[in-house]
Amino acid sequence: MFDFSGTLFRIESCERWLRGALGAEGVEAADDEVARYAKELERAGAQPGGPPPERLPDRLAEAWRTRDLTAERHRAAYTALSRSAGLPWDVHDALYERHRSPAAWQPYPDTARVLAELRGRGVPVAVVSNIGWDLRPVFRVHGVADLVDAFVLSYEHEAQKPDPRLFRVALDRLGVSGDAVRDAVMVGDSPEADGGAAALGCRVLLVDPLPVADRPDALLAVLDPPEGDRDGAPHARREPDGP
């Protein structure tokens, strides 16, 4: 089982994200203006797949906590955060649409290699993601959809990681049950969210959600995963922290 954002794929930079939305709306803006407001969007945590809010307004706390349960909550939470960034342009819906575009995402250099190797070994693969939209087109456009056996997305089940129910759905779809669960591995970048798979007895392998250019081969560890602790606690292997 793999997480999506920060594990198999990485969202584009916030500045490029903003430029893409402005271009879609036909808005011209100076480079320094785009750079300035991209930083404000980052601070607000307004980019899905980007950093979390530096300071979350109290009025948005519940929306943030439950954002991945439905498509409507996801859109509402992130457009509210972008509105809190003080942009001089009304491009909040365009920003949201931009982040759902395959062009906004880039696979890590070893993503296709690892998924193909697992397919060659006959190991079934599921993508388990906290998300509010259908990411399957991203996988199709980047040529790796056929290497995934099941997509288990939080908004389609109204359950979000670390809730064990989402991992249980993935295991069921992969035909994994009984003692075989202890041979299943959840690969992700969040100890809190992805570590929820340990409650079912799965092993957990963690990678850092670094920029694509800075993380060329962290997923290769999946091909020879650690044994982990047999008491159900996650066994994590992480890449060195980025700058």
Automatic annotation (TrEMBL):
Keyword Hydrolase among record annotations: yes
GO MF terms, alphabetically ordered: hydrolase activity
Entries under SUPFAM superfamilies matching the protein: HAD-like
Record InterPro entries: HAD-like_sf, HAD_sf
Biased composition (Basic and acidic residues): 227-243
Keyword annotations of the record: Hydrolase
Gene3D superfamilies: HAD superfamily/HAD-like
Region span, Disordered: 222-243
UniProt name for this protein: Putative hydrolase
